[in-house]
């Protein structure tokens, strides 16, 4: 076994690999750019080596710099994580030439499976079902349009060396094929240094389901069930679960066996993932094989008890797999939510800045138990596990140079319903401040009827949130629970204020029992009867709720019990009440006396400023190009400019017809959120 491993990556996945290496007694080496000198993975590793400036193409994906770090540290093996150099065959070759073990598959497997065109041909030869498409390389946009018409719209335009949603576009007509080809080509060149593009038929109403495989260099190969990854945004996964609520045992077995057959066809040795599109009739088609560890690997670990990182390291050290297909048992259900630094209220555009508050929910170790690779049982009935894989910390910065993922929050429970409920509570308990993030959206998905039923496709977000995410309207029952809780919390805060030291004699203020709570456009008159153990809140219609909690004023998280059911609220202070966040809703809750409520009803509503004649920058980013000029008339939907942020190009379009009166920015300009790019007459 190795004594020292270098992790050729950063962030969450680097921290994940370090944890397993530490468990195995293996020393670790981190690499870091200027932007990551204070990063979590650097402090967790036993050693660290600086490799260059912030941009990845000047540091993390420069093979010579990583090789220098390996020589400096004396590492015997390299784990590449995912992204960056993880599927770069030249990097694997460089390691082999240096006599350093690559914790990943052989070069031939990376080359054949990493190239989507070659992998499809091999899959067809191995008897794996594939999607119709054009396998050759495409030279220009006009050829892309011609091929798209031959294949038949809609089509998927993909970077041959792509992954993680980069260099991918769906086109429904000639214009979108033309635009999509160029954007995919640009993103592919920037992210992978390879701008080759191919086109395939886009299967409508598809599910994205992938099979985890594990092979050694002695000819052994197994599959560890599937992962449902259908909830995606811009072709990037947001929510994953294992197993899939859609597959039956026969389909699972067929997909698994085909996945292993494909892996063996290229002498695969390591952990890998074979991705499939599955239609409503459970017909499945090969998409691609990722010759690396997947972002969503924790859900497989939670239902199988197999540490995939450990298995990768052991395979790289030449060991045989210690488990067979018969040893693989899927126990319980696991769900993963990806927490991204992106603002769901601004079309999920990237957000950067400092994490002024970062408090994940407490991790709970539970779930399936594997000891010495043999099943020893499972967690007690009803108990849930919580796992948070992260690479950030409170006070750290989210950089514009790298992927916007902050953490992967996972839950495991004996049933899918319990795993979902555990995830709801975990999301409610997750405190993140200082940047835009998608916690509210994830909470909304966990409550969405389509997700709860398991009846979703890769079009889930586009279909259910066609106009973007605008927050959640909570049902009446939830509003009442929050109103009762806030009334009880407000009373606690008021009592604390009456007990301030140094007050004058005969100036004691008594806290009343009658209050009016307003939230989400609703108003509730309540009466509070408090005792040592909690408060009984009575509504004007006579219904009551019993609220107990150890919340004290100033706490950002309130864990309450309302009529015997738990309620977790994120709490912020506003004038006359609280800012409450729960289940995807962001509420201003005012708690007033009866007289204050009467006066508040007379107050005029403050209107936001009119920005209808301006194009505002929706994210911090770099202007790539401006498509219009002063005096030009633009039509609804016309491209105005392109902004690049976090490795993604975003085309900003006109919302309505107008004439450009002023252009305030040009290519190469760095802009902040809400900077005015273009003004209209």
Outline the fold blueprint.
Blueprint: E1 4-7, H1 11-23, E2 27-33, H2 40-44, E3 47-52, H3 63-73, E4 77-79, H4 89-98, E5 101-102, H5 107-114, H6 116-125, E6 133-134, H7 141-151, E7 155-163, E8 166-171, H8 174-192, E9 197-201, E10 207-215, E11 221-233, E12 236-242, H9 249-265, E13 270-278, E14 284-290, H10 297-304, H11 308-316, E15 333-340, E16 342-343, E17 349-350, E18 353-354, E19 357-359, E20 370-371, E21 374-375, E22 385-390, E23 397-398, E24 405-413, H12 416-429, E25 431-433, H13 439-447, H14 449-453, H15 460-464, H16 476-498, E26 514-519, E27 522-531, E28 534-539, E29 544-549, E30 557-562, E31 565-574, E32 577-582, E33 585-592, H17 594-600, E34 614-616, E35 621-626, E36 633-634, E37 639-645, E38 648-653, E39 658-663, E40 670-671, E41 676-680
Parallel strand pairs: 1-2, 1-4, 2-3, 4-5
Antiparallel strand pairs: 6-9, 7-8, 7-9, 10-11, 10-13, 11-12, 12-15, 13-14, 15-24, 16-17, 18-23, 19-25, 20-21, 22-24, 26-27, 26-33, 27-28, 28-29, 29-30, 30-31, 31-32, 32-33, 34-41, 35-37, 35-40, 36-39, 37-38, 39-41
Helix pairs in contact: 4-5, 5-6, 7-8, 12-13
